[in-house]
């Protein structure tokens, strides 16, 4: 009896959650997306337990009913997102850029010619697409880049001036994290030093991350104009080499 009850729970969660991810909007869809990933770890434990029971019954020649097979099958499906954390079988968060609202048009946050390291709508060109809040994030570089050097100054973008992409109000900053030697991962936070800017026109947020320690020249609550100097590019936070991360986030205020 308990196996049938467990099977109903697994199947119901998978069907309802995947439908909601594609049909629901806003916070509901985002919450369900993260719930699916959290449930994948539960599915791993269910899968391991079911497989152990399966082999135990096989060894002692006990009857293996169809319900156990189905639990194993749907546990495998439920555990699929665990692989995403190891870059296996990942998919983009299901969202259509044309249907997103409100939209923000901003200027490039650098005055120098730059390259897009990661960006766009597809997983092949933008590893951020798996995260709802970074669905269309960009990582910006200035040559020379990807030089595999341990010296920050060898990267063209290190120290480059970051300009306000749009007029708005600075709602949050972090200015105290050290710049890491490229290749090291002893970061304190994912974003490192950052600026959260609330855009005047849309009241949505722009996030500028991995800034140079101590380089931020604006304060929380300050209003800035498009093109105004904000900070310098660094290599703080979870960053393999100096670059500027930028993404547009909805009306949920960043923490």
Description:
The longest helix is centred in the first third of the chain and has 34 residues, at 26-59. A hairpin with a 5-residue loop joins strand 5 (193-199) and strand 6 (205-211). It is built from three helices and nine strands; from the N terminus they run H-H-H-E-E-E-E-E-E-E-E-E. The chain folds into two domains: 2-86; 103-249, Distorted Sandwich (Glucose Permease (Domain IIA)). The mean pLDDT is 94. Helix 1 (2-23) packs parallel to helix 3 (66-79) and helix 2 (26-59) crosses helix 3. It has 255 residues and is of the alpha+beta class.
Write the layout of secondary structure elements.
Layout: H1 2-23, H2 26-59, H3 66-79, E1 115-118, E2 138-141, E3 161-163, E4 168-174, E5 193-199, E6 205-211, E7 223-224, E8 229-232, E9 244-249
Antiparallel strand pairs: 1-2, 2-9, 3-8, 4-5, 4-7, 5-6, 6-9
Question: For this structure, what is the CATH class of the largest domain?
Answer: Mainly Beta
Total of DSSP H or I helical runs spanning 4+ residues: 3
> Segments where pLDDT lies below 50 for 5+ residues?
none
- What percent strand? 15-25%
Domain M23ase beta-sheet core: 158-248
Pfam families: Peptidase_M23
Region (Disordered): 232-255
Protein name: M23ase beta-sheet core domain-containing protein
Give short descriptive properties of this protein:
two-stranded antiparallel ribbon; 7-stranded antiparallel sheet; single chain; Glucose Permease (Domain IIA); alpha+beta; elongated
